[in-house]
Every structure is written in C-alpha cells, then in structure tokens.
Amino acid sequence: MHAPKQIVDVWDQFNDFPMERLTKLWFYKQGANKKQRDVSLMKEHREQYGIAGNCFDLSIWLLHELHNATIEAYPIGRHLDSKSAHVAIIALDEAGNRYLCDLGDQWICPILIDKEHEEFTEEKLPNFFPAATIQVKQDGPILQILYHRPNGKTSMQLYDLQPIDTRDFYQAAEYNQNQINQAFSRVQSALWK
Questions:
Q1: Long-range contacts of 145-154, Cβ-Cβ distance < 8 Å, separation of 24 or more
Q2: For the packed helices 55-68 and 166-178, what is the interaxial angle rounded to 10 degrees?
Q3: Which residue from 186, 188, 164, 19 is spatially nearest to 81, judged by alpha carbons?
Q4: Is 136 contained in some domain?
Q5: Residue 47 domain boundaries
Q6: Over the stretch 34-91, which tens digit does the pLDDT of each residue have?
Q7: pLDDT interval class at 190 (50, 70, 90)
Q8: CATH code of the domain covering residue 180
Q9: Would you say residue 179 lies in a domain?
Q10: Is 71 domain-assigned?
Q11: Phi, then psi, of 10 in degrees rounded to 5
C-alpha cells in the first residue's frame, strides 16, 4: 500500500510542514487582492517565517513539486465551494497506480487507492496516519477512509476521485481563502461575548 520512492521523495520534502490556518488569516489581513498565494510566495513565507498553510496551500505546493519531479498528479476534493471544502492530491506511479497524498490532513505517507492492485487491502493499516489505523475503501469515484482511533472511535473522510480541472481548483482555492475572515469574525465575536 506504500507509494514508490519517486513519490515518497517528493512527499518527504513536506515532512516538517504544519497544516494550519493562521497563515491564511495573517495573509488575508495583509490586504492583497488575490488571497490564494502562489508557490513562490508560499516558499518565501516558509523561508522567512517557517509557516505553511491550509489544505489548499499544501496541495498546490505538493502538486507543483510533483510536476517538477515529472510525476503525473492531479487535485481531488469535496465540497469545493463551501466552508467544509477539503482537497488533496492523487499522484500516479509509472504504471499508472494512484496514491492519495493528503498533506492537509497530515498523513504520514501516501497510500495506494486502486483496489485492483495486488497489494491493495481493505484491512486496517498502521503507520499511514497519526494516532489511528486506517482502512481504504474505494467504490467507483468515491474514496472512503476510515480512521480507527485507539479509544475505539472511528471517523471518516470521503474524497471524490474525479480530477478537478486546474482552473476550477484555483477558483475553489481563492474562494476558500476568502472565507477565512468570515470564520475568524464569528470566532472573535463568540470569544468577546
């Protein structure tokens, strides 16, 4: 279920990148017209301040690095034009096998998602996600990940495996980044009541 070395080598460049939203709020407050940062600006901010960003930032950056390494990859996601949007990347190995790469949810490493592959299993697997074993279930265009916690609780993430058009992906990222101020204002209002 593990990804091949060429995908893991790119993935490992992000090992110490946190997924956080404070960067988004900070950048929103800078007053830039365009709220979704491009990769060069994310790299600059990372070098200056040690910051990373949210799932859109990390997916955009990972996609960029995979393409630089000549690895075929594309974005996927769910609820793109909503507050509950989440995106990740699918990277393909040389044989065309697909691997889920989700830096936004802080996965430890990419995972095989093609149920036709001889190494694919729906058994619970350790060492892919922090503090949980995971199960991968793929049914047509929907990927279901079950997270089994040590306390017995189980949570789930769904991914629509249809590739997101690049233009739509960046539009969704910009939309999402423009929602951060509204979310912050609601939290701020609740705190000061």
A1: 145/100, 148/124
A2: 150
A3: 164
A4: no
A5: 5-120+162-191
A6: 778 889 888 988 898 888 888 899 999 999 999 999 999 999 998 887 777 899 999 9
A7: low
A8: 3.30.2140.20
A9: yes
A10: yes
A11: -70, -45
